[in-house]
């Protein structure tokens, strides 16, 4: 019997239980044993309480979070994947990444009434069903980071996908001059706008905010363009947004340092595109081990969907 169960027994129940254990003992001995057992039990409870309090005082996690963290790590070690094609780490820099229990209607309402910063944290995620593109966990990358296209301020929440869409795509078909026109004229941008955007469900689809994005690009004559700006509802991250480097080329863009603290955080199921140009014929991408590299614009790579609400 567990201590928690023993603690709930009445005096009569305790005495009857001990009599069953010590059937040959006289009543006075039974009572002595009863007193000793319960005295020691209370000491044990007090000691456990001190231990638990010391643990709580010395740790950033609550006990429930510790147990949850242990379970998550054990699941990762055995290689178990969930039905959302979960290949992204659920423990990020020692923090448990939590799913938002609210539905998208509640999330959008929190944006409208300004309570989103109180209710959610950077790193929290919410799944969205994109049909043939899969069920994608959208993770909060930042609050009030992206300038709204109508110049009315900044979008409340920026979301970046934890896993890649089911479909892959190229940045541009012409591998020789694929970065001319950059993100603005890329095949990837057209794919997100024409194919993925209509699949955004319900109130979420109606609540996505057009924002201004800044990207390193190229134009005719092999001339590079720093901080080229576009207005986007859906996009893929840039080099600066994921790595925080090349500030002179994309200095106006944000760095989502909380969800991309190191290369482990950048690993997804396969290589995935960044919208930043590398050279006149190529774009940046994230490798399978989280490093950044570049390849021809006509290569097929994964897509990390991003948007603002």
Topology:
Elements lengths: L2 H5 L3 H11 L5 H32 L4 H15 L13 E2 L2 E2 L7 H10 L2 H4 L5 E5 L5 E9 L13 E5 L25 H10 L5 H6 L3 E9 L3 E10 L1 E2 L3 H5 L19 H4 L5 E8 L2 E5 L5 E5 L9 E3 L1
Antiparallel strand pairs: 1-2, 3-4, 4-5, 5-12, 6-7, 8-12, 9-10, 10-11
Task: Give the key terms.
single chain; disordered N terminus; 309 residues; five-stranded antiparallel beta sheet; three-stranded antiparallel beta sheet; alpha+beta
Describe the protein.
The protein has 309 residues and is of the alpha+beta class. The protein has ten helices and twelve strands. Strands 3-4-5-12-8 form a five-stranded antiparallel β-sheet. The protein is elongated. Residues 1-7, 50-62 and 76-94 have low confidence and may be disordered.
Question: What's the short story on this structure?
Answer:
The chain has helices at residues 3-7, 11-21, 27-58, 63-77, 104-113, 116-119, 187-196, 202-207, 239-243, 263-266; strands spanning 91-92, 95-96, 125-129, 135-143, 157-161, 211-219, 223-232, 234-235, 272-279, 282-286, 292-296, 306-308.
